[in-house]
Amino acid sequence: MMSSGNSRKCQCKDYQTSSNENANKCKGCICDTLRTLQTQTEVDVFLDGGQVLENVNFINLDNDTCCAFFVETEPGSTLIVDCQKIQAIRIQAD
User: Fold this and answer.
1) Rounded distance, CA 59 to CA 52, Å?
2) Of 26, 75, 36, 29, nearest to 58 (Cα)?
3) What's the pLDDT tens digit per position in 20-52?
4) How far apart are CA 24 and CA 4, in angstroms?
């Protein structure tokens, strides 16, 4: 069981807006979480199919394409992943 200081609740909800229908077309808990995740947060990304991207820094989420951008801590390559294809993320503790 997680302590109350470390718990994070998934803000999984449908983001339908009448003013901009494409603003949040990327659906799912992970896409919703990435929308609010602070830039340069270190995470591990668990993809569909079992591949894991370890120790990457979140850069941003493009709401038009659902592309989530991450940069490897070494050697610095940029990784672009469809947020809807991510099964889970682990947010690294400070």
Assistant:
1) 17
2) 36
3) 444 568 999 999 999 999 999 999 999 999 999
4) 29
